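Weekly sync notes, structure subgroup
Attendees: PM, AL, DS (notes)

Item 1: joint prediction request from the bench team. They want all two components modeled as one assembly rather than separately. Inputs as received:
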Amino acid sequence: MSGRTNRRWVLATRPTGMVGREHFEWTEEPVPEIAEGEFLVRNLWISCDPAQRAWMEIDTYIPKLPLGEVMAAGCAAEVVESKHPGFAKGDIVSGVFGWQDYAVADDRGFGGGLFRPFKIPPGVDIPTALSLFGITGLTAYFGLLDVGEAKEGETVLVSGAAGAVGSIACQIAKVKGCRTVGVAGGARKCEWLTNELGIDGAIDYKEEKVGARLRELCPDGVDVFFDNVGGEILDAALANLAMHARIAICGAVSGYSRYEDRPGIRNHHMLIVRRGTMRGFLVFDFMERAMDAIAELAGWAAEGKIKNQIDVVEGLENAPDALRRLFTGENLGKQLLKVGPE
Amino acid sequence: MSGRTNRRWVLATRPTGMVGREHFEWTEEPVPEIAEGEFLVRNLWISCDPAQRAWMEIDTYIPKLPLGEVMAAGCAAEVVESKHPGFAKGDIVSGVFGWQDYAVADDRGFGGGLFRPFKIPPGVDIPTALSLFGITGLTAYFGLLDVGEAKEGETVLVSGAAGAVGSIACQIAKVKGCRTVGVAGGARKCEWLTNELGIDGAIDYKEEKVGARLRELCPDGVDVFFDNVGGEILDAALANLAMHARIAICGAVSGYSRYEDRPGIRNHHMLIVRRGTMRGFLVFDFMERAMDAIAELAGWAAEGKIKNQIDVVEGLENAPDALRRLFTGENLGKQLLKVGPE
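Output from the run, pasted for the record:
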């Protein structure tokens, strides 16, 4: 691979507010050589995930990303050279390869082993592998069914409902026979949720009072809240819990762009009144059951019960803008960045 | 009973800040007559509980207390007259009889059946029946062991640790072989916790930085947090959770005297990072196992492993001051009001 150029976005400064191009630096370097046990990949698609914003600023389940190194991101890539017995030239693999054209990979993966590279089976559509059949779909699946314990006939509330994880969570809730209400920003997203995804109600948090609308749409309270957002929406949900409600804390995106000034939760005492449970989770703790979950998700998709909405930005040079869309609310469904040569 | 006077404190106005004498009105009325199925009790001891402050201002698991009616409180009382087959003159009963000398009681109890009168067995010390063997001890027991799932070798943190429930929770944690740290207000309480109750560490939240002290005392994080307080102490605990930590939300007393201005919780996203669970509970949901728990608590008390600290104020006329002590932090252990004639 010598002689070829690897274009990369490295993390230049830590954002404290909205993420943007100014936090990254574009660099071009020679494509590195691989050693024994390593393989070289060429990125095709890059996943944009709200957690990336948290990784940039604070220690989470992984230490914050080091400055001056390539921006971390989940990717689908093609193996172009291999000195690893498990990966061959031409394999399509998923892994945290970052915002760059080429990456050297090995078994260790990223995040102390949380994310290890794995092969995407031939024939699987790559954007679907990065969304419905990837971390996104699995997060929705395990968060709603294992953490939230959603059951037929219950009322499910989902925040960030028009986002990648939220839109899958909404649809799984419908498959399971739950009355399903989503919270999203803007009339376009709310109409999409009710008209296209067929959920029972949507609340536009930018235009409507979430608490008042929740009382209207969920008069018997919320049994399961799948929360991607935190802040005022979580507070409104806490004030409208049904008895023995479960809150699955998937993310807290309302605080990611203003971490130091993030809003507080004032209604946690309602967990006492309604004997509620709030549980945080990471999909990585459920991965031993991933293949079963993917099989079930694939079945629902084949039956037309789950639509996998993706939103595509093209070109590695646009990576910062693609990520930013998650926080400006521009994306509908899964935000992907297409970087492959084909 | 006609001709005798019933002295009563009725709720006159709803407090929004610190509770005090000004929120109640002293009235004297004839002792009422009982009807078929009712019995008349003479109060002996009155329990002071932080939840009473919440009941005065807001809807909780019961609707807020009506103005102009006797202030609700758990009591131990002697039956002085009965037209109920289950209660005989001379029986000692526990029930929500309120801040008054005499009360008419029946099977329905208080709070839509949450609190029903029951007999205290002969020979049981009455203050102990209202504390270690009552709602107080059972709340500590089920909150720590069932909700918090505290196990041998784990690190347990208790807030409001020198209060009624907290001091029992601390001691049960020690019985179970947990490293136990308490948070309390003032050096006197902290010394009592470590020297008299024998817990492993105490943090004086009035003088010390709770987060920094927590990192020192619980360097591997908190496995179980038994929280009576909420607010900044809960936030500090959230920032110092061990993996798979459990938070049992028993109360949120830091917000009870400033409900409209109560502090927010800013670190709930740490539930994701540490895969933690926060669960609210009410002891009433565990009452079918109350006798087993009391037997176990009695055994520990007999072995000297649990001290039942009570703090007594005398005289019905001092009821508002006795309640107020819970919020000024004056009480050590269980605050009781002795009102009986003997």
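Discussion: The domain at 5-131+308-338 of chain B is CATH 3.90.180.10 (Quinone Oxidoreductase; Chain A, domain 1).
Action: AL to compare against the crosslinking data before next sync.
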